[in-house]
């Protein structure tokens, strides 16, 4: 058995040991997100679209930049739900009581007539509740994760397209909407790197509202994905 295979098996075993806690945390987060998703607000639209994307990712592709309309608590809850959705035992709507009915409400509410976006102060929502120490730890983990994801996106492997669209979606979510359920097909380490990069970019304090590393690399055109291949 090779070292890389052994490492992968150990990682999977450790993940399975953590899985019950991940599901418990994710289910609690999901129950907090439902009232937000059913509210006709900017945050409600973002959370509603996020939950629909986990329900049917091919039909409801998600604009990752919508996450920047969330306050820190709601963003953290979305990350907990996303982590729960990796290798799911049941579909997302089956995690909560009367889930089928709730998802029908989400479909009706965020279908053909969504409310107008207001001018929410996205920057303040993203940074106001995060301490300097938290941001530094997230920055370090996210920077390393981004470099690894960039290598995968350029590798031409089976995961490169999903990772490439994910990275481009951080900058231009309107043209590069992601099928959230595609993230289930990533290796565990790659999936967790995506979470780390989302956390880093969310807490970025720049005028462009994106981490400088992400802006600098992606705007060079190093990652080339055809927008037409990703239908909004």
Structure report:
- It is globular and about 45 Å long.
- Helix 3 packs antiparallel against helix 8 and helix 6 crosses helix 8.
- The chain has helices at 3-37, 42-55, 72-84, 99-109, 122-127, 132-153, 160-171, 188-202, 212-218.
- It has one domain.
- By secondary structure, it is an all-alpha fold.
- It contains nine helices and no strands.
In short:
Helix content is 58%, strand content 0%. With 232 residues, it is mostly helical.
Any chance you could write out the topology, listing elements then pairs?
Layout: H1 3-37, H2 42-55, H3 72-84, H4 99-109, H5 122-127, H6 132-153, H7 160-171, H8 188-202, H9 212-218
Helix pairs in contact: 1-2, 1-3, 2-4, 3-8, 6-7, 6-8
Features:
disordered C terminus, 58% helix, 232 residues, mainly alpha, 9 helices
Largest β-sheet summary: none
Report the mean per-residue pLDDT as an integer: 83
Number of strands: 0
Structural class, from secondary structure content? mainly alpha
Q: In the residues, how many domains can be counted?
A: 1
Overall shape: globular
Number of helices: 9
Helix content: 55-70%
Low-confidence stretches: 113-120, 225-232
- Terminal residue distance: 43 Å
Strand content: under 5%
**H-E string:** HHHHHHHHH
- Rounded to an integer, what's the Rg over CA atoms? 17 Å
